[in-house]
Amino acid sequence: MPQCAINVYVGNIIHCSKPFTVEVLKNSFIAVNQNQIIAIDSVSTLENFKNEQKNYKINEVVLSEYQILIPGLIDTHIHAPQYPNLGLGLDKNLPEWLEQHTFLLEQKFENLDFAKKCYEVVVKKTISHGTTTAAYYATFHTEPSLILAEIAIKYGQRAFIGKVNITLNPETYGCESETSTIEETKRFVLEVLNKKSTLVQPIITPRHTFRISTHALKGLCSLAKTYDLRIQYNSFVDPYTIVGHTVHIPIEEVHELARHKTSVSHCPSSNFNLQSGICNVKALLDAGINVGLGSDISAGSNVGIVDQMRSAITASRALSFHIDKYKPINCYDAFYMATLGGAKALAIDTVVGNFAVRKDFDALIVDMNVEHGNSQCLLKYDPLELFQKFVYVGDDRNIVSVFIAGKNVK
């Protein structure tokens, strides 16, 4: 039998050890056996660790002085079929954008070849940008939605795949009957579950409130409870649900979300681009709501969650200009939402979101001294300074390695 291997990553490590607490582990290591983290400690103990693992081959990866190891980024709201429209129609408001761009594009996904071509690009691009977990909206077409699940499995991305449900207003997009949307969603759910993937799972995904009937929504919620699935929907309050945007929401409704343990996907770039408004994410966080970040492409204009961290900071600072005594979020809060906060919002924080023994190793090696990046390192920087550079000026060029469940996928 081949000798089992342990991969050891040595260098400066940054993660959120708990909500809103960024921890720097200087000169430390993380040891990974298959998919799981088996040890985290100071480099000073590394030789002892190696001696204890004599039955294993040790593969050691040593980070440079300008590299940091961080958890994988989590996109809690992304429309995979909208990728071809990235950057289009962003001078329009939401209704115009939906009618003139989005609905027309999503009809094309009846064509399985087109769907496969698009979804291959989306999954590879998001991984390249450091998205180790994505909560995808597909379309209401069942077979193309299954193709998205297969592609996520193929490339090793952790993903929630949602077959969209539409039963009202067919003149703008087409739709299903109430019976059909429930039956097809059940078929979709069972087929995804039967793939036995440890990374990819279905998620119940009703479309806008004006596109889904009450009867169909009840049936879909029943499926969610039967198969213990999350729901992504913008107007439903319960512990299973992650709602998007929450831009125009009074404080009373914020407290309702908190009381029902409903999570939120904050999509600041999308909110800016379609002139929807600014989400007061600080109020959500202060109320104890689990909040992750969403790219919400193609209303959002970048598939990377690093860009959403910047947009979230900008949005919060914009609110501080006209709300008295308002303390905006900072880069550490944004990083929390992009990692552990997103994991909590999707109820996978026992598996990923930060670094802990027995959690899966979803991680990025970030290099702030790549040749063609936005910023090269002309001085010595401590780990937190490299982290700040990544949040404010970094992009996919700085993400030199991506690991999902221990597997190197970039």
Question: How does the SSE layout of this entry go?
Answer:
Layout: E1 5-18, E2 21-33, E3 36-42, H1 46-52, E4 57-62, E5 67-71, E6 73-79, H2 94-107, H3 112-128, E7 131-137, H4 142-155, E8 158-162, E9 164-165, H5 178-193, E10 200-202, E11 205-206, H6 214-226, E12 231-232, E13 241-244, H7 251-259, E14 263-266, H8 268-273, H9 281-286, E15 291-293, H10 305-320, H11 331-345, E16 363-367, H12 383-393, E17 399-404, E18 407-408
Parallel strand pairs: 1-4, 6-7, 7-8, 8-10, 9-11, 12-13, 13-14, 14-15
Antiparallel strand pairs: 1-2, 2-3, 5-16, 16-17, 17-18
Helix pairs in contact: 3-4, 4-5, 5-6, 10-11
The proportion of residues forming helix, as a percent range, comes to 25-40%
Q: For the report, how would you describe the main beta sheet? A: 4 strands, mixed
The tally of helices reads: 12
Quaternary structure annotation: single chain
Radius of gyration: 21 Å
* SS content category: alpha/beta
Query: What is the total tally of β strands?
Result: 18
Order of helices and strands: EEEHEEEHHEHEEHEEHEEHEHHEHHEHEE
Distance between the termini: 28 Å
Q: Which spans have pLDDT < 50 for at least 5 consecutive residues? A: none
Enumerate the strands of the largest sheet in spatial order, edge to edge or round the barrel. Answer: 3-2-1-4
Overall pLDDT, averaged?
A: 95
SS strand fraction: 15-25%
Based on Cα principal axes, name the global outline. Answer: globular
